[in-house]
Amino acid sequence: MATYAVARLWDVVMGPQIVQYLEEIDATLAPFQGHFLVHGGGFEKLEGDWTGDLIIIEFPNRQHAQAWYNSEAYQKILPFRLSNTKGEVILIDTVPGDHKATDILG
Fold first, then answer.
1. DUF1330 domain location, by residue (predicted)?
2. Could you tell me which of 44, 46, 33 has the C-alpha nearest to residue 5?
3. pLDDT at 11
C-alpha cells in the first residue's frame, strides 16, 4: 500500500539554502521510488484558515518513505529546509480502493 509524505510549510524564506534544497531533493527521492503528487501551487480554500503550501510525495510503501527520510542524502539537505521554513510533516498510508468511511468504526 502506498505511503504519502505530507508537509504543510509556511514562512518559507526563498534564499540560497531553499534553492539548493529544491535542486537536490529529486535525487534523494529516486532511489526510494518517491515522486511529487502536489508541490505547492494555487488552491481554492473552501473551509478554515488554511495557510502555507501543501507538499505530497508518494512512495510505494511506508518502508520506502522512512528509508528516504532517514537516508544520508536527505538528511544532508534537510537542515536547509528546517532553518528556512516552519512546517509540519507526516507519513500516512493510503487505504484500499474499496475503503468506506465507516471502515474506521470497526
1. 3-94
2. 33
3. 95
| Residue 106 pLDDT class (50, 70, 90 cuts) | confident
Specify whether the CB–CB gap between 6 and 55 falls below 8 A: yes
DSSP label at residue 52: S
Closest CA to 32 of 87, 91, 74: 74
Kindly tell me if the per-residue pLDDT of 71 is higher than 90.
yes
pTM for this entry: 0.94
Contact 92, 26 (CB under 8 A): no
CA-closest candidate to residue 18, choices 86, 83, 80 = 80
Q: What is the DSSP letter of 71?
A: S
The residue to which cell 531553499 is assigned? 18
CA distance 57 to 52: 17
